[in-house]
């Protein structure tokens, strides 16, 4: 039976800002609700980012918003995906966070002046002061005021109730209303047992906790905000034909720039767009974007990137990409997506947190019943309320995502762009690092260092024919051969049917003959007569490729590449971290072994094909190793995709980057070591946070059940508990500065 294939709509990702989430149960609820919408294939809701990242096909925004509303929250307007969309979204998220902080601050400012006299009235009795009976009503009045200030808590609880669910707000609302209600009853019956003060204090402390937490959480996004503010607001656009005449330019907002525009960048200003320098000589510092601390010289023809800083002289740049098409916007988008993603381990913590609130409600009910039977109503009330307010699902919900947001941001600041939480987690567990050689530990900028034709008359065709094929190749060797042909003024010949044999060479037709350029062994296998000819002996750091015309061997081209100056230190740092470092190269054995020794790598595998690179990764992983594969080229792509973590060099081929789960923003292998350190620190922070969040609840809940914790103390502990988690995640950021410095200082040595 044949099936008519209906074209499947493309997989798309939407980011929906969400309002009203306060804890892990909210996260779980929103995820569940969105997961049921038609077309959705995965959802990741982030509490610190206050957003849902939704992946799916043919997503309908109205349906998504309706599902969120159904769950008791509000989905805000998606920002349009135009050029300033990302900036707008981040600015909006920050504004919302700021709004929350201000709201909590205002509520706190209203609650505090009412709560203090309430505490004095209620607890001065302990110091022997006695107040007239009517002050009971004054307490009731003051407490009403405090609860009023905490109204958002009750509204949120009511919204949750409306959708038959319970959140952190439910616990607080239930606890305080029970204390308040029981006290009112006691007061009107003229009995003792007024708990207005604990009720007021719980609300005040919760508000205090929220204000502190919002404050700290705004800090977690600092790395991404730092990226987004690298782009200037204004640009100086040259008017038609204005390049020669100085003053013919206008000041425009960067959003008005279009590709093709000419823009003048003053000394010390940052670039408003990606582009190519058309006039001027200056230096560019990319420190804030990529962590690269050495400024690089630029002149006409050089590319510049949005957000990097111009040095000492004015430049004119022709814009090639603006707005959301720039590399900066792409980096920011990827950082934001990684920060909002979840690893399988995170999802597990989420699931536990999701059933936490109902479990606490049940526990409070059991505890109240037990105490009620044992020693009466008052005891039941105090213990029940203490259980409700001491539980802190909030800390559970923040434990992993805040650490991730800070960790991903720190990695980006160091020059490593991780794809998602899973990649960062895997990086922290790495045991092996496999480096490709060419373009990864070397610069991959070849120059021809010598020609070894098999006979003198073959010298010209050797280079000219090779260049004809390499004109259509992306391998780093190609650029070197083309440059040598141009230097020698050899003719520019046309090649047809050019095919790259990844990891072996290129073949094609030139004036009717089959030409091959590549590994000697590959030529031999293709039937080329090698005869008595021997591969040339190489200087240290050189490599060679053979060239043939039909069955005839024309000779070899020797090429030299420059090892990256940072390679040795990168290898040493990785080894110091306890990782096994290996070199995987498609190049000749003697070359790979010579360089491996130079870098301190003992395990060198040379002359490996792309398939063998993949096989090595597979074998190691089958033995239980967690492999980080670092590469730059087409030949590395399969291994990059298969490894636990594939790392692509920033200047590497696009396929390599697409296969990798981590991309380096600058081509410095030391960034791999820094990223592994960051991943480990993030993992440790997550562990500490989870241990704290679970440990806290495991200890305080029994204490509250046994009536050892007074409800007011319980509320204080709860309010601080989530603040501590966020503060611990922020510590991760501070540690990065200490680590980043030695990296920068050793630059350029
Ligand atoms: P590496 O693993 O060192 O990055 P590759 O796997 O890309 O190297 O290539 C392995 C070998 O194949 C090269 O050293 C070279 O001899 C040959 N080769 C591959 N592509 C080309 C090409 N376009 N031109 C010439 N030789 C090539
Ligand atoms: Mg390579």
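Q: What amino acid sequence fits the structure above?
A:
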């Amino acid at each position: 039976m044949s099936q008519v294939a209906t074209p499947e709509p493309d997989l798309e990702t939407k980011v929906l800002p969400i309002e009203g989430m306060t804890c892990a149960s909210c996260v779980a609820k929103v995820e569940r609700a969105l997961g049921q919408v038609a077309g959705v294939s995965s959802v990741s809701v982030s509490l610190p980012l206050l957003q849902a990242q939704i992946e799916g096909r043919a997503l309908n925004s109205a349906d998504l918003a309706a599902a969120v509303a159904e769950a008791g929250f509000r989905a805000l307007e998606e920002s349009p995906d135009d050029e300033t969309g990302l900036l707008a979204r981040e600015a909006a998220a920050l504004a919302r966070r700021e709004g929350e902080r201000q709201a909590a601050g205002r509520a706190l400012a209203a609650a505090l002046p009412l709560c203090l006299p309430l505490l004095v009235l209620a607890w001065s009795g302990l110091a022997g002061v006695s107040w007239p009976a009517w002050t009971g009503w004054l307490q009731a009045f003051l407490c009403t005021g405090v609860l009023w200030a905490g109204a958002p808590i009750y509204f949120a609880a009511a919204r949750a109730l409306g959708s038959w669910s319970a959140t952190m707000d439910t616990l607080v609302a239930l606890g305080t209303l029970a204390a308040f209600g029981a006290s009112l009853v006691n007061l009107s019956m003229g009995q003792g047992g007024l708990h207005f003060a604990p009720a007021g204090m719980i609300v005040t402390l919760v508000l205090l906790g929220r204000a502190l937490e919002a404050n700290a959480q705004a800090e977690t996004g600092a790395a991404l905000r730092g990226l987004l503010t690298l782009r200037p607001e204004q640009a100086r656009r040259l008017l038609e034909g204005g390049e020669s005449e100085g003053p013919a330019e206008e000041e425009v907002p960067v959003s008005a720039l279009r590709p093709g525009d000419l823009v003048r960048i003053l000394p010390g200003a940052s670039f408003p767009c990606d582009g190519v320098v058309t006039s001027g000589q200056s230096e560019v510092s990319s420190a804030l974007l990529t962590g690269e601390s050495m400024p690089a010289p630029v002149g006409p023809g050089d590319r510049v990137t949005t957000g990097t800083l111009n040095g000492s002289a004015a430049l004119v740049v022709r814009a090639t990409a603006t707005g959301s098409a720039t590399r900066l916007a792409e980096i920011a988008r990827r950082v934001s997506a990684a920060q909002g993603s979840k690893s399988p381990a995170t999802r597990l913590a989420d699931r536990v947190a999701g059933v936490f609130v109902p479990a606490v409600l049940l526990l409070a009910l059991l505890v109240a019943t037990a105490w009620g039977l044992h020693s009466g109503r008052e005891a039941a009330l105090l213990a029940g309320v203490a259980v409700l307010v001491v539980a802190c699902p909030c800390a559970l919900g923040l434990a992993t995502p805040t650490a991730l947001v800070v960790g991903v941001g720190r990695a980006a600041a160091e020059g490593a762009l991780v794809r998602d939480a899973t990649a960062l987690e895997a990086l922290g567990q790495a045991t092996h690092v496999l480096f490709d050689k060419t373009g990864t530990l070397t610069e991959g900028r070849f120059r021809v260092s010598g020609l070894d034709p098999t006979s003198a008359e073959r010298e010209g065709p050797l280079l000219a024919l090779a260049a004809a094929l390499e004109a259509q190749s992306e391998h780093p060797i190609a650029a070197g051969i083309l440059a040598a042909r141009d230097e020698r003024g050899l003719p520019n010949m046309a090649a047809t049917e050019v095919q790259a044999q990844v990891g072996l060479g290129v073949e094609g037709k030139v004036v009717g003959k089959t030409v091959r350029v590549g590994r000697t062994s590959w030529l031999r296998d293709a039937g080329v007569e090698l005869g008595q000819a021997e591969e040339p002996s190489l200087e240290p750091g050189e490599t060679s490729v053979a060239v043939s015309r039909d069955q005839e061997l024309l000779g070899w081209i020797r090429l030299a590449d420059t090892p990256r100056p940072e390679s040795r230190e990168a290898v040493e740092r990785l080894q110091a971290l306890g990782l096994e470092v290996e070199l995987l190269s498609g190049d000749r054995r003697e070359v790979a072994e010579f360089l491996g020794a130079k870098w301190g790598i003992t395990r060198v595998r040379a002359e490996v094909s792309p398939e063998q690179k993949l096989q090595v990764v597979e074998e190691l992983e089958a033995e239980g190793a967690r492999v980080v594969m670092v590469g730059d080229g087409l030949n590395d792509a399969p291994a990059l995709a298969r490894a636990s973590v594939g790392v692509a060099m920033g200047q590497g081929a696009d396929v390599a980057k697409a296969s990798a789960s981590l991309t380096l923003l600058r081509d410095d292998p030391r960034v791999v070591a820094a990223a592994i350190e960051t991943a480990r620190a993030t993992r440790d922070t997550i562990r500490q946070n989870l241990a704290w969040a679970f440990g806290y609840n495991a200890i305080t809940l029994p204490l509250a059940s046994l009536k050892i914790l007074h409800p007011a103390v319980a509320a204080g502990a709860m309010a601080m508990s989530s603040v501590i988690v966020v503060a611990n995640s922020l510590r991760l950021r501070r540690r990065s500065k200490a680590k980043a410095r030695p990296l920068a200082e050793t630059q350029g040595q």
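Q: And what stands out in the fold?
A: Confidence is low (pLDDT under 50) at residues 736-749.
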